Amino acid sequence: MSKTSNINRVDGFAKVTGSATYSAEYKTPGVVYACLVGSTIAKGRIKTIDTKKAEWAPGVLAVITHLNVDKPVGYQKAKDKHNFGQPLQIFKDDSVLYYDQPIALVIADTFERMQYAASLIKANYLKEEHSTELKKAADKEKKVETDKGNDYHRGEHDGYKNGQVVLEAEYTIPTEVHNPMELANIIAKWDGNKPILYTKSQGVEGTRKSVAGVFGVPIEDVEVHSEYLGGAFGMGLHTWPYEIAALIGAKKLNRPVKLVLHREQMFTNVGFRPYTIQKMGLGATKEGKLTGLTHEAVAMTSSYEDFMEGTVNMSRFIYDCANVSTRYRIVPLDTCTPIWMRGPGEATGSFALESAMDEMAHKLNLDPIEFRKLNYAEKDLEQNKPWSSKYLLECYEGGMERIGWKNRKNKPGSVKEGDWLVGYGMGTGTFGSYRNPTAVKAKFLADGNLVLQCSVNDMGPGTATMMTAIGAEITGVPAENVIIEMGKSGLPKGPTQGGSATTSSVGSAVHDSCNLLISKVLGLASENPSLKGIAITDLTFSNGVISSKKDSSKKVDLTSLLTANKLEGIEVENQSKGTEEAKKYSIYSFSVHFVKVLVNPNLGKIRLAHVVSCADIGTVINQKTSAGQMYGGAVGGIGMGLMEALEIDHRFGRPINNNFADYHVPVNADIEKQEVFFVNKKDPISNPMGTKGLGETALVGMAPAIANAVFNATGKRVRDLPITLDKII
Ligand code: MOS
C-alpha cells in the first residue's frame, strides 16, 4: 500500500464546516433574487397569465414570461428534432409540456419580496389531454433514429425460446429522483455579452457549450464556476431551463440574478431515472448452461427530447451465451426529460437481468452463484475482445465468505431467526471503464508546493483527493503541499464528471503531467552548476531535491534551482487520452452485491441484516474515498430496491410525494451492517494507474440482490420495484 492510498478527503474540512462555497453562496454585490412559477397543468396552452399584481408588488424588478421575454438567438437555430441535448426552450411560447413547467420568472430585490410576488401570479390554461403513465402509453413506443447499438442479435434471434428450460418475466422500475442535498442553484450575470455562471453542473465545459449555443456567443466567452457540489448523482449532466432563465433575467436587468429551485421543483424540473418496463427471456440446458438471452426495455422520455440509456447493455456481454437479443424503445410522455441517475440504465437493466438469473437458477435447482459460474464469460462476446482484467470470481468469493453464503438454502423460507424469515441474495454489476481526453497543468512553486489545475469538478466522489494522491505519489511532494484548482472555466480542459470516468481520465492526466514536470525539472537541473556534466538519465528527483543517482552529494534543491533561474515556478500543461492498445480490450469494472434480509411475513417488514458490496475496480487510488463511494452507491441501490418511487397522480399528471417526508430514501437505521471489499488488482491496460470506474458499479446489481434475498426468505418474487411491504404480505 502506498503512503497516499489512505489520505483524508482534502476538501472534507471545507465541506463539513461550511467554508466550501456552493454556487448560490458566492458573495455577489448587487445580486437580486429570482424564482420560477410553474404550470399547474401537465399539457396545454397558457390562455392568459396575469402578472400585473406581481409587477406592482414591492421590490419587484421584473416578471418574465413568454409574452415579454427577449428570446435567446439560439432558440431559432435549434433543429426541429428531438435529439437529446436540446432541452425545453423556456418561455419560448404559450405551450405547456409538463406539470410545473416554468411559466414565469419573478425577480425582486429581496428573497421574501420575490416569493410574495410569485404567489400573486395567476394563469388560465387551455388544457389538453396529457399522458404521463408509461403502461398506458406503451403502444406509442418508438425506436430512436440515432440508436445504432440497442437492436442487437448474436446467434439466433430470441434463441432463448429453444432452451430446454425457458423463463419469461416482466420487470418494472418506477421513476426515481436524484434529489441531492444541495438544490439546483445558480447565480447568473453578464459582463457585456459574456455570460458568467456560478452553477451546479457536473461539467464546466459542457455547460459552457450549452450556454454558448443558446445565447449565440463563443464558447470561450462563457465563464462557468462549479467548484463545490453537494451531490448531483447525474442531474448535473444537463444544462436545465432554470439556468437559462436566470441568464435571461440577468441580461434583462443587467444585474446578477440568484435562482435556487425549491425542493418540490427538484422532483419536476431537473430530470429523474425514467420509469422502465423490461421483458426478459432466458433459455438454458437442464444442467444450467445458458443457451439464449433476450432483454427488451421500454422507457419513458419527454415529448420534446429523446433520452436513452444503457438499460440492455449488460445483457450483451456479462454471460457466456451464444444467442442474445436486445431491444430498447422509448415512449414520449408529458414530463420533463429524464436524465442519467447513478448507475443509470445499467442499474435498471441489472434489476431485470439479475432477477431473471435468480429465477432461472431456482427453476434449475442450482445455487445462483453456481449458475453464474457455469455461464462465466471468459471474454467479451459482444465486442469479441479479451477483458483487460476481470476479477469477478474474486468478488463472488469475497462476498460469499463475508455474508455467510454457506448458511443459504436453495429452498425459500427454510431458514429462520426467531419470527423472522432469513434470505440471502446476490446481484452482479458491471460498468464500462472509460477514459476521456483531459488536460492538466502541473506546476512546482518555489515554496515547494505542487499545483494541479483542471476544469473538472467534483460532485462528491473525491476527485480533488484522487488528484492529490496521484500527484503526491509521483512527485514525492507531501499531500498537504498539493494545491488543487478545479471546477471552473479557464483552467486546462477537463471532462464532465460522469460515467465513472473521472479517475481514469483526470488521474491519468495528473500522472502524465507530473511525470513531464519532473522531466522538465531534471532538464533544468542538468544545466545547474552543482550538477553540470551529469546526464539527465543519471539524475533523480525526490522530496524536492534533484541529485545524481551515482553520487548523492551532488544535488540541488528545487527552490534553489528556481531561484538560480529567476523562476517563480516551473510548469507543464499536457493533454492525456486513451491508447490504441486499450482499444483492443474490453475494459469493464465488476461488482457483486450480497445481502442478508430478515422478513417478518406477518408485518411485511424487511430488515437489511447485512450488506456486502465487492468490486473489481482495478487499482484503488484511495481506500477512504473509494469505500465512501461504494457505500453510498450501495445505499442508492438499497433505496431503489426497497423505497424509492416517485408516485404520479395521473389524473393531473403531477407528483404526489414531491418532498423528503413522502419520498423515502434509506438512512443509517435501515441497514444494520454494511461492508465494502475491493479486489484491488491493477488493470494492465486501462490507464497508467490501472484503475477502472467505480461510481456506477457501486449501485448496479444491488436492487436485484435485495429482490433475490426477499425471494429466498419468503418464496415471493417481486418484479415491480420498490419492494414495499404490501407486495410481500
Ligand atoms: Mo453519472 S449517472 O454519469 O452522474
UniProtKB/TrEMBL annotation:
GO molecular function annotations of the record: iron ion binding; oxidoreductase activity
Stretch list, region Disordered: 137-159
Secretion signal span: none
Residue ranges occupied by any Aldehyde oxidase/xanthine dehydrogenase a/b hammerhead domain in the UniProt entry: 17-129
Cross-referenced PANTHER family: DEHYDROGENASE, XANTHINE DEHYDROGENASE
Protein name: Xanthine dehydrogenase family protein molybdopterin-binding subunit
Organism expressing this protein natively: Flavobacterium fluviale
